[in-house]
């Protein structure tokens, strides 16, 4: 029967602690090398087990659950994307799922469709005439968590909340 790695480590430790004169440095080194080899072998065995588990799980497919769709939220997202298309003429944004995800996240954080539309219009008016800035009139810039709340803060006070702020949230939140 093989001695466990823990037992081997304890044996080496006991030998080193006892400091017997007959236990040479070469013997200590040999025991440590033996232990290192055993550890490496054990890690190899564990990696093999992990590979077998990965292969077994790879063939497994979960049955997707039906997602509940918040129709009102999706309508607001559609409204924002249509406004973006009408303002910029960029057609691809209507199809991109990640744009919908960014807008959905900002609305769930407390933003409104009106704020999102105001941000689109404000940044379009500010940046569209400048060819170096025009490229930033895009959903991934406008609805990025940090950027969106900064842009809302720049809006007309009527579009801010009851406390006069646009809900700015730092990226570290």
Annotate the secondary structure layout.
Layout: H1 5-18, H2 25-58, H3 71-88, H4 97-108, H5 113-127, H6 131-134, H7 139-142, H8 145-153
Overall description:
This protein has 8 helices and no strands. The longest helix has 34 residues, at 25-58. The protein has 2 domains: 5-58; 71-159, no CATH class. The two termini are 55 Å apart. The protein has helices at 5-18, 25-58, 71-88, 97-108, 113-127, 131-134, 139-142, 145-153. It is elongated, with a radius of gyration of 31 Å. With 173 residues, the protein is mainly alpha-helical.
What keywords describe this structure?
elongated, mainly alpha, 173 residues
Unreliable residue stretches: 162-173
What do the pLDDT scores average to? Answer: 75
Strand coverage percent:
under 5%
Derived from helix and strand composition plus strand pairing, the structural class reads mainly alpha
Instruction: Give the total of domains.
Output: 2
Number of helices: 8
What's a concise summary of this model?
By secondary structure, this protein is mostly helical.
